[in-house]
Amino acid sequence: MKKWCFVSLIMVLLPLTCNAEDNLKARAEAAWAAREDVSQALIAVDLYKQLAAKDSDDFESRICLARAAYWALEEQRADLDKKKKIEIYENVIKRLNEILAKDEDNVEAWYWLIWDMGALTMVKGVFSGWNLREGIVGTIMVSKTDVNFHYGGVYRYWGRVIYETPGIIGRFLSFNNEDSVWLYKKAIVIDTRYLRNHFYLAETYEKMGWKNEAIKEYEFCVNLPDDALPSMVPENRLYKRLSRERLEDMKK
User: Fold this and answer.
1) What pTM value is reported for the model?
2) DSSP code, position 180
């Protein structure tokens, strides 16, 4: 009798558990869809974190967590303290490594690993220690599957690394701003509608003192229709806004 009562209880609770997880996923997806509001982006981070913790085989939620964390903390510059940002990035890296322990060729996991690790380095400080090995291995693993992945993400990654590298280290490694320009242009050729590449290129031109070239790239961003790249509307709107702000500053 007790056995049948236990079985009956399991049968009742199982659908409730499934519904709870489905609801959590739906809430996470809704928050991500509203990611232009940074508070919603942070909610998406928290919900995807919960989903990843529930199932060690849930690769999708781990990728979504990594993507949402980078968007909220790095691209939107969410107003969180340093300790909280480090906590989020370290959890993301842990979850991505869980994917790679089971699927070492997972291109999405490698891609987001190099970007989130790079963002973690910037939060801690460049001199805290940048994991060069992971950056090299990660970009190799992405490139062997699709060098054009995520609108030239590999080119954009190294362009940004060079941009952020302090001058003395850059000279030691033989990096220079022209290398960043070349890399961003390689990425832009893949899909000129992805504005993050143009914005990064414009920032590099500014750093080099090439004002006219920078203005041209910022103006391209401002003038591109919001829906030119339907899958990246929020991202493109962000870089349109940032480009508009830079143009206004340059006129002062």
Assistant:
1) 0.87
2) H
